Amino acid sequence: xxxxxxxxxxxxxxxxxxxxxxxxxxxxxxxxxxxxxxxxxxxxxxxxxxxxxxxxxxxxxxxxxxxxxxxxxxxxxxxxxxxxxxxxxxxxxxxxxxxxxxxxxxxxxxxxxxxxxxxxxxxxxxxxxxxxxxxxxxxxxxxxxxxxxxxxxxxxxxxxxxxxxxxxxxxxxxxxxxxxxxxxxxxxxxxxxxxxxxxxxxxxxxxxxxxxxxxxxxxxxxxxxxxxxxxxxxxxxxxxxxxxxxxxxxxxxxxxxxxxxxxxxxxxxxxxxxxxxxxxxxxxxxxxxxxxxxxxxxxxx
Length: 301
Hints:
Elements: H1 2-24, H2 26-32, E1 42-46, H3 58-66, E2 71-78, E3 84-86, H4 107-111, H5 130-137, E4 142-146, H6 152-162, E5 168-171, H7 178-184, E6 192-198, H8 204-210, E7 217-222, H9 234-237, E8 242-246, H10 258-262, H11 268-275, E9 281-284, H12 287-296
Parallel strand pairs: 1-2, 1-9, 2-4, 4-5, 5-6, 6-7, 7-8, 8-9
Antiparallel strand pairs: 2-3
Helix pairs in contact: 3-5, 5-6
C-alpha cells in the first residue's frame, strides 16, 4: 500500500514537472501569441539583465532566465572572419576594454577582450557568439535578434543549426513592406520576424497590413508623440496581429516610458497606457519592475 502511495506521489510529481516545463517552453509560449485571446503580456528584457551584469552577455541571458523574463533582446555584429557575435554598437569601445569595430577583429581576437558592466567597469565576461547565446537559451527563453539586417541569411542559419528557430523573433529592416523584404531576403516559412514601423509615416498602416502575408510576423510600432491618429488603430490591429511595444525611452512610445514608471512613480501613465493599446509584448529596461507590475494587474503568471 505504501509503495503504491509513494509511486502515486512520484507520478503526480512527474506530471506536475512536465506541466511546468511545458508552461515555460519558449516555443509554445511564442506560438501561443498567434492564437489570439492572449491575456498574458510577455516581458522582453532589453539586452538582457544589463543593470546587474554586462549587456548582451551570457550572464545577462542566464539572469533573464532565472528571473523569469519571457524574452531576451540581443544584438548582433559580424567579425572579420565572418562569425556572428553579440554586440550592440558599431564599435566595441563602450562595452569592452578594447577599441575598434567588430569587423576589424577575428573571433579569437574579440574573445581576448572583456565586457564592461553598466558602470563601465571591466569584468571577466567575454563577447559571446550568437551560436553560444542560442545554445544557452535553447528551450529556456524566447530570444529576439536585433541589428542583424545585413546578415539575415547567416542569422537564420545559426538558428537552424542550433534548433532554436521557433523560439526566436528576428528583426528585419524597418519601415519596409513584406513584399519588398521578400524580394531581397529568403525568409523561412516557420521563422518569426518583426518589423519596426514609424507610426508618423503616411504608409504606416499599409506597411503593417502587408505583414499579414507572413503568419509569424510581429509588429513593433514606434512613435515620439501619442497624438497620432494611427496610434488609435493599435488595439484594432492587435486583434489580428501580434504587437510589440517599447517602453525604453520617450521617443519610442510618446512619453510612456520606463523612467516615468519607475523614477517618477507613474506606472499607470506609462505601462498602463501601453497596456490599453493591447500589446502582446513590452520591451523594457526595467524587466523586474515591469514583470511585478503585470503580475499585480493579472496580466502575467
